[in-house]
Every structure is written in C-alpha cells, then in structure tokens.
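Appendix C reproduces, verbatim, an entry submitted by the partner laboratory led by Prof. M.T., so that reviewers can inspect both the input and the predicted structure.
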Amino acid sequence: MSTDPRDSITPVGPDIPADGRADGPPVVPPRHGSGVLARILTALYALVVTPIATGLLAYGGSTLMNYAMSRGYLGASLGELLAGPAGVRVIVGVGLGVLLLASIVATGIVSSAGLLATGAVGLLSVLIAAIPALALQVYTLLPPEIPFELLDGISYGLTLVLHPLIGGLGLALVIARRRPAPHLVASLLGLLLIPLLLLIAALMLFHGHAAGVRVAVMTFNTEIHLLNVALVVLGALLLFATMAATRWSPYALVIPAIVLLLVSVGIFLFTIELIPPMVWTSPSGQAAMSFLFVGGGFAAAVVMLVHTGVLATVRALSRRRLRTAAGMPS
C-alpha cells in the first residue's frame, strides 16, 4: 500500500478519458446575426418600400417646393397651405414617405438586411446621378398614368443622399451586433468627426449632383464630366462610411439631426430673403436648398434619430446575449 498522501487527493474537474477529450456538450459560440427568415423578410420589405417612400416624399415635397419658391402662394402662410387641398398632398406624401423610411430603419432591431438592401438600391441611385442620361431615360420609361413628381426624388437628390445614408446605418448595426461596446475615446472623437465628415460628404454630393442630373433635367444636356462622377461616387462612399462609423460613436448623429430639423423648419418660417445670396448663386447651394425644401433634410433627421434608438437597442441586446453565452448574469 502506498504511503504517499497525494494518493488520497480526489481530482477536481471533469473525467478525462484516455483519448484526452473531456465529457460534456461542446461549447457553442453565440449567434451574432439575425435568423435567415428575418433577413429575407426585412430585405424584401426594404426593396419594395424604399422606392415608394422616396417617391411619396418627392410627390408631397414638390408642393412645399412650389410654396417656398413662390414666396408663400401670394401671401398664404404655411398653416393655410397645410389646411387647404394642397395640404393633403404634403401631409400624405411627406408624412407617409418619412414614416416608411423610418420603418425601414426600425427593422434594424431584428435584422440589418433591410437597411443594407436600401444601400444596394443606393448603388443604382449613385449610377443614375453619375450618368445623367440614365436619369432622363428613367423619366421616359414612366407610364403616363403615373405623375412625374414621383420620380423627382432623382432631380432633388433624395435618392442620392438617403439611400447610401440608410445603407451605411445598416453596416453600423452589423458591426454593433458583434462588438456592441464602443471605445470611449472613439465615441468622443466621433461626436466631432462624424458631423464634419457628414458635411463634407453632403457638399461633394450636392456639387456633383448640381452639375450633373440637375443640369440634365433642366437643359437636357447629358454630357458626362469626370469631376462630377468622382464627386458623386466618392461623396456617396464617404457618406456610407460615415454612417457606418456611428457604431463607434452611437450618439454622434443626434446633433446633426437636431440641426437638420431646425433648418428644415426654419426655411419655411422665415422669408427666402434671409437665406444668404451666396447660397442661390452657387449651383451646389441651389441643389442643397431643393433637397431641404422637399423635406429631404427632415427625412434624414428622422432617420438619424430613429437609428440612434435602434442602435442603442441592438447594442443592449447584443451585450445581454454575450453575457448569457459567457454564463454571466444579464
């Protein structure tokens, strides 16, 4: 009999067979993404709703554009406009269009596929903006029963700005599902850098759009300039990347959204004379004002604010899932 006291120690831990494999079920890593069905449904929803929402926004926004450019319909206030027959078109078009765009962003809680599908539609929007002849071709293919205003989102820059913007927000949600906790330094830097990059991307897009599609729609001049193509493509890529960067700075879009809301409301409350003349003398400034007058700024602001809430929800759910997978209390 052995007298070594170590022989009486009972080993702690799982039984290890001779082949070296421990007993027990294998460790399954947590699933970060959404289910296949959720991805398919949200993607199909976005593909159907995106053009409808943009068309409704342009349809109702064209009435706001006419109101602003005619200095208030011979003295009528914005309240009188909305209370009249034209108000139904504005409320249904702009209101429903913005609501549908916000609903696409809201689907990001269950899957990012819908937002990414809108970004895929944005590829077509960028292509049309880069090749003005395509924009005119789209108008010619429209059946006579459908109002042209439904396609005016192309000439107003709605499709060029909103579609890549929403696509970038989808990528931010994809990353947040896998790494929900942003670094504090990156989050603080994003509060400064993301609004700045957003402004630069907008300037690039409106400059390229003004010298491309807007000229083609007004003068039927479809000449392609490489500088305009570069501004449109690079501006859309920068906008997409900037929106994706909100994963590292979840609240960086709050201030830009508030500014857009204030500007979008202010341009209708005050007379056009208060807008600096340099805005009207610049083609890119005119393109930006058209985007704002038809409700593009309001739509972008609502999308940004909804995304901020969706991103916070996704991050919270991802943290809870990761803590549960690690055996920690949620």
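Residues 8-16, 24-30 have pLDDT under 50 and may be disordered. Additional entries are available on request from the coordinating office.
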